[in-house]
Amino acid sequence: MGHLSGRRWSVLAGAAMLAVVGWRVVSYGHHLFAEYPTYAAASWQHGMREVVDHLESMQVEEVYVSQNVFLAHAHLLFYSHFPPVEYQRRPVRVGQGAWHPAGARVGRYVIDEVGSLLSRPAEGRALLVAYPEVADEIVAQGFYARGRSFRLPDGQRSYEILVDPAMQSPTTPFPAARLDGACR
């Protein structure tokens, strides 16, 4: 009888350990696949692919990108499918720890500090990409108008495309209606 209860005890202990391990696996999976994408999205520059996809679909001469956008040159190279041979002719020089290259150019994308970008004449031919806080200041000062917002999974804004006010006239190739709305 003692042998049976010992065996029964081993089975119960094994089942309890299996239940604990199973619960930990389910908990880990929930955190990794349900919660992590939401709270880590901003740290992983969520939305930049959608921003570049949207910009690539537009016919605009230049796109100004705030130097504050972390690793903007890498995102632009990757998501715009910039030809490697062309990049090798004129690479963006970025040193270790200098993740915000000022004055860099990737095709039609110009990465620079906001003050420098705002001093360039847009003349109805340029868009500006910035983080929401910077975009709000630029819009408030009247330099650009709000074009399109891109959002994180939790609903917060991640990036803004700002439009030169001259682009919103009916004579330009992309009317304001095409730029309105948030990325869903």
Summed up:
With 184 residues, the protein is α/β, with parallel strands linked by helices. The chain has helices at residues 2-39, 48-56, 72-79, 84-89, 114-119, 132-140, 176-179; strands at 62-66, 104-106, 109-112, 126-130, 145-151, 157-163. The protein has 2 domains: 2-39; 45-179, no CATH class.
Description:
- This protein has 184 residues and is of the alpha/beta class.
- It folds into 2 domains: 2-39; 45-179, no CATH class.
- 43% of the residues lie in helices and 17% in strands.
- It has a 6-stranded mixed beta sheet with strand order 2-3-1-4-6-5, sandwiched between helices.
- The longest helix is centred in the N-terminal third of the chain and has 38 residues, at 2-39.
- 23% of the residues are buried.
Q: List the helices and strands in order.
A: HHEHHEEHEHEEH
Instruction: Tell me roughly what share of residues is in helical segments.
Output: 40-55%
Give the end-to-end Cα distance, rounded to a whole number of Å. 65 Å
Please identify the structural class as seen in this structure.
Answer: alpha/beta
Q: What is the mean pLDDT?
A: 82
Low-confidence stretches: 169-184
Count of helical stretches: 7
Radius of gyration: 25 Å
What are the defining features of this structure?
single chain; 184 residues; alpha/beta; six-stranded mixed β-sheet; 6 strands; disordered C terminus
